Amino acid sequence: MGELDLDFYKMLFEDLDPENLRKRFLRLLLRIQNVERGSVWIQQDNQYVCVESLGSPTDKDIIKGASIPVEQPSIVGWVMENAEMTVAEGGKDPRHYRKFEESMTLKSALILAFPLILKNGEVYGVVQLIDTSTDANRLNVDKKYLGLLKSIIDIASTALSSALSYTEQVEKNLELEQIIAGMRSDEQIIGQSHPFIDVMKQVRDYAATDFPVLISGESGTGKDLIATALHNLSSRRNEPFIVQNCSAIPNTLLESELFGHKKGAFTDAIEDKIGILKAADGGTVFLDEIGDMSLSLQARLLRVIQNSEIKPLGETKTSKINIRIISATNKDLIKAIAQKDFREDLFYRLNVLPLHLPPLRKRKRDISLLLNCFIKRESLKLGVPIKKISKKALEHLENHYWEGNIRELENFVKYILSAVDNNIVGINDIPDHFKNKRPKDVASRESLSRKELVFSAKSIYSVDESPFAGYSWEGLERDYVLYLLNKNKWNITRAADDAKMNRSTFNPRMKKLGIHKN
C-alpha cells in the first residue's frame, strides 16, 4: 500500500468538507481492496443512515440516504454495538440486511465492515466494503492485511470526525451571524462559547413569538442588550421599543411614567402625560429590574397584561393597548415571592419564556473575543493605540471570577488603556483587585440566590409543590453542603458532623461540587 500513502495523507490534511472527505476515503479503500461497492453509515436517532455510497450508478442511488431501523438485524448495527471489525457472507449471514439489494443486479457475496471510532473509544459510524464477484475472491481478508487496513481506517476516522466538528462549528457560526445580523452593530453581542450559542438560539426562537420574556442573570451580563435583540428580531422591530428601569426612580413617579396621568391628577400634574405603556403601543416595553417594583404597581401591571388595557392616573376610562413586555431581574424572584415581596401571579405572567444569561465566568471562550472588541472600541474613542494582551495575562483573566461580569471586563479595558504604558499588557499590569479568583462570600451568596428549600411533609411528597422541582441530584447535594457550611460559619469539621460524615469524606465532596473555602 506504499504507493497510496501520499494520496492518504493528502486526503486527511487537504479536505475539511466531510462529504468530500468521506467520498475520497471510501474511494481509496475500494481501490486498496479492489472492489467496486462500499458505503459509510452513521447513527441518527433510532436508525442507521447511509451518508456515502460508491458502486454502479444504480446501486449508489439506491443506498445513499437509505436507513436501517436500529431494532432490525444488520451488519452495520452489529459493528456499531460491538465496536469490532467483521467479515460476513452476504447470502448466509443472518446479520445482513437484504432489503436494499432486492432491486440490484449484483448481490453482496462478501462484506467487510469496520467501525469508525473517536479518540475516546466511541463508535460514531461504520464503513462497509462489499465484494460482488461470483466467487467472492476480491476482498483481501488476510489478518495482517486487515490489521494494517484497520490502522488506516482508525486514522482517517479521526479526520472524518474533525471535519464533521468543523462543519458543525461553521454552521453554528453562520447561524449566529444570521441571528446577530438583525441587531444594531453597536450592541457588541459577541461570543462563541456553548452557553452563549444556547442563549442566542433562545433569542432567535423567542423573537419569533409575541409572549412575555423574563430575562434573569447576574448584574452586568447584558440583559439590556438581549432585550433589545429580542425586539429587533421580532415582528415589532419597526415599532417603538421603550426601556424603563424600575429601580431608577421612586415607585410614586414610576406609576406616572408607566401609566401616564391627566392634568390635575396630583399636585405637579400640570398637563396630560402619555405613559410608557401607551407610547409603546404596537411595540415592546422593557422593564428592567422588575424585582424592585412595588406590590401596588405590580397589581396594576398584572391587570395590563391580563386585559391589554391601561388607565392613566386621574382618568376614568381605560384604553386598549397592544404591547409585548420583556422584563429583567438579577434577583431571585422565587425567594421574593416566598417573602411576599413579589406577586406570584405576576411572576407566572411575566415568566412565560424564561431566559437565563450565564455569568462571564461560564463563558471563558468568549473573554478573548470580548477583550479584543472592547479594546478596539475604547481605543477608537480615546484615540490611543490598540493594546494586546499577553498569553499569561489572558490565562489569568480567563480564570478571574468576574463578579461584575461584562461590565467589569469593560472597566478593565478602560483601566489598561488609561494606566498601562506597554503595548502588550502583561500579568504584572493587571491591578490587584483583578487577581482575586473568587470572592470569599460568593459561595454563601450563591446558596442564598437559589430556591429556598422548605422541608415539610406536604411539600416533599406533593409533586406540584415540591421544592425539589427543577433540581438535579448534584444541585440538591450542593445546596445541602452550602447550607451546612453557612450554618456552621464555614467550619468544615462541624459541617461534616452535622452531615453525619467524616471530614475526610466531606472535604472531597466539597471539592467535587466546586465549593472552596477561601
Walk me through this protein's architecture.
- This protein is α/β, with parallel strands linked by helices.
- The protein folds into four domains: 2-167, Beta-Lactamase (2-Layer Sandwich); 192-356, Rossmann fold; 362-434, Helicase, Ruva Protein, domain 3, CATH 1.10.8; 442-512, no CATH class.
- The chain is built from 20 helices and 17 strands.
- The strands form five sheets. A six-stranded antiparallel beta sheet has the order 3-2-1-6-5-4, sandwiched between helices. A five-stranded parallel beta sheet has the order 8-11-14-7-15. A two-stranded antiparallel ribbon has the order 9-10.
- Helix 1 (5-14) packs antiparallel against helix 2.
- The longest helix is centred in the N-terminal third of the chain and has 39 residues, at 143-181.
- The two termini are 60 Å apart.
- Residues 1-6, 182-187 and 443-467 have low confidence and may be disordered.
Distance between the termini: 60 Å
Mean pLDDT rating = 81
| Rg over alpha carbons | 31 Å
Count of individual helical segments:
20
Q: What labels would you give this structure?
A:
Rossmann fold; Helicase, Ruva Protein, domain 3; 4 domains; six-stranded antiparallel sheet; five-stranded parallel sheet; elongated; disordered N terminus
Which helices and strands appear, and what pairs or packs with what?
Blueprint (H helix, E strand, L loop, with lengths): L4 H10 L3 H16 L3 E8 L2 E8 L2 H7 L3 E3 L5 H8 L3 E4 L20 E8 L5 E9 L11 H39 L12 H14 L5 E4 L6 H10 L8 E5 L5 H9 E2 L11 E2 L1 H4 L4 E5 L6 H13 L1 E2 L8 E2 L3 E6 L3 H6 L5 H7 L2 E4 L7 H19 L5 E2 L1 H9 L5 H15 L4 E2 L16 H8 L7 H5 L11 H15 L4 H7 L4 H10 L6
Parallel strand pairs: 7-14, 7-15, 8-11, 11-14, 16-17
Antiparallel strand pairs: 1-2, 1-6, 2-3, 4-5, 5-6, 9-10, 12-13
